[in-house]
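Sequence design from tokenized structure. All designs in this work follow the same two-part layout: the structure record, then the generated sequence. An example of the structure record is given first.
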């Protein structure tokens, strides 16, 4: 992302705690640059989408 490209991680495993129990969860994450008026990257947007468990 330092050069302004979008990064995507599809169906990535992230162990999380739900209701006090650790469980596996799969997400697709996308990180995109947020640009200013001069098209320079000044921040990042993050989109997370849950995925069905791998079988």
């Amino acid at each position: 992302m330092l050069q302004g490209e979008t990064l995507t991680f599809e169906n990535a495993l992230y162990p999380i705690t739900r209701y006090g129990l650790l469980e596996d969860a799969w997400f697709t994450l996308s990180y995109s640059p947020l640009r200013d008026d001069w098209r320079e990257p000044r921040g990042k947007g993050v989109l997370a989408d849950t995925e069905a468990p791998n079988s």
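The mean pLDDT is 88. We note this feature because it recurs in several other targets discussed in the main text.
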